[in-house]
Amino acid sequence: MGKDRRQGEGVRDLGGVDRVVHEPARLMILMYLYGVKEADALFLLNATELTWGNLSSHVSKLEEAGYVEVDKGFVGKKPRTMIRLTSAGRKAVDAYRHTMQSALKRPKAG
Amino acid sequence: MNETPSLSEVQKRTVRLLSYEDGLWDLLLGMIFVLLAVYPITRARLGPAWNLALFAGLVLLMTGIHAVVRRRISVPRLGYVKARYTPAHKLILAITIALVVLTAGLVVLTLVRPGWLAGPSAADTPGWVQAYQVEILVLLALVGLFSAMGSFFGVPRLFLYGWLLGGANLVSVILYRGTPEGFNLPLAIAAGVILFFGASLLVRMLRKYPARGAEA
After folding, report:
1. What is the structure's pLDDT at A77?
2. Which of A39, A55, B3, B140 would bridge A50 by S-S if both were Cys, CB 3.0 to 4.6 A apart?
């Protein structure tokens, strides 16, 4: 009975899931940034296979939410945009992962 | 996007994209083993000490060239990432470096073959193990190291490299033991296969990822 209630709570938590993180393209960007200190936009473009426009729009939304920081700079004469996950972004990914894991936990057979 | 998101998979893909997608690592590895293939010839001409110095110098030079080429060719195409080192990452890095140093030491030991290496061995050890104990150690070390890297980073060709290099070393000792020192053909063939993989990956990377002058 207690276990059923706990599983029910996990599913109910889905209602409060962070919509900024939940969007697939943004989740992908956050996941790639999660394992590194910082990455440039070109790396994210290749890794996520998004278009420049999509990437730029999703990064802007993540920046507005305070989940990533964006530094626009130059290497020689070429522009380079470095993007890094903030501590709020890291916490948001952890919370999202926890919510999804508890909601999607596979029930034991029988 | 149809795959189940997995942070560890994403991290593996990051390493693969940055370190193994351009084939430069394969080219460096292949060139090092080409040097090892000609090692006996240069040693006969230069002597062990100078030859080792030449080998180390050339490896350093190639590593430098590898870094420059990566910065000039790969980074503008694949992008740039600053690694985040957690204590677990640092431990893995330390173990990898230790294993690489150990393997390189064993390979050099096989080539230098000092007298104390043929020390007393147990009477019940099979003859072929006694005869090729260092080469078997090198084979196991190379297979273990490359398999661990292949599995950890999700790069299947590294499994092949371990067997190829360790096997080539063993075959070359079986073929050439007791003969005058010369060109090490099995090691050269193994290095050639790795160079072929590296060159193919480099061409593929150059075609797949065009250099981008500016971000959109």
Report:
1. 83
2. A55
